[in-house]
């Protein structure tokens, strides 16, 4: 499995004709078509595929995911998605994970007491959230840090759409003087959990921007504008 990746991104060269070319990675899990439509509405040229060359050459790669952590990891490994993610990040090529597509970027997930190894791009454990009502399903606010690119122009208190029972309850990556620290956005449902991360070319959201109305559309436009 790939090791943890933490690195400051170099400036992007820009997209062809001003239109970002984005691949939504098809590995058998995720809201592929809803993500495709949302990205198209946000102005991207979108392809849904598992083709490695297309995924490597695109300006941006979106890794969706719904369901169980272990099932998503099985599909991702079978499609070679972990290697695509790792190779893109090694070349400073942007990746956006959504929902379980964010969770699999961490070291491991634990479901029903059974641990599953993740992609290991960030340290941390995806585990069941301690809350009276699960799944956490519906609209919730987030607390984005200053300097966020994803949440630029989005008013504090804006709500995004979540559907999950598991999440990252503790951010475990220590700050380093060698690289810019990741920007971590938090939300709360019973307890705080990580709602989004921005770490150079690697970004991710626990919520579904493609289901979050105008706020989600703005976030996707912000991400596309950074490619």
UniProtKB/TrEMBL annotation:
Keywords: Amino-acid biosynthesis, Cytoplasm, Glutamine amidotransferase, Histidine biosynthesis, Hydrolase, Lyase. HAMAP family: HisH. The lineage of its organism: Bacteria, Bacillati, Actinomycetota, Actinomycetes, Pseudonocardiales. Its main location: cytoplasm. The active site is at 99 (nucleophile), 208, 210. Its EC number is 4.3.2.10, 3.5.1.2. This is Imidazole glycerol phosphate synthase subunit HisH. It catalyses: L-glutamine + H2O = L-glutamate + NH4(+); 5-[(5-phospho-1-deoxy-D-ribulos-1-ylimino)methylamino]-1-(5-phospho-beta-D-ribosyl)imidazole-4-carboxamide + L-glutamine = D-erythro-1-(imidazol-4-yl)glycerol 3-phosphate + 5-amino-1-(5-phospho-beta-D-ribosyl)imidazole-4-carboxamide + L-glutamate + H(+). The gene is hisH. CDD domains: GATase1_IGP_Synthase. Pfam families: GATase. IGPS catalyzes the conversion of PRFAR and glutamine to IGP, AICAR and glutamate. The HisH subunit catalyzes the hydrolysis of glutamine to glutamate and ammonia as part of the synthesis of IGP and AICAR. The resulting ammonia molecule is channeled to the active site of HisF. Heterodimer of HisH and HisF. Residues 23-223 form the Glutamine amidotransferase domain. It comes from the Bacteria. Pathway: Amino-acid biosynthesis; L-histidine biosynthesis; L-histidine from 5-phospho-alpha-D-ribose 1-diphosphate: step 5/9. It is found in: Cytoplasm. PROSITE patterns: GATASE_TYPE_1. InterPro entries: Class_I_gatase-like, GATASE, Imidazole-glycPsynth_HisH. The keyword Hydrolase applies.
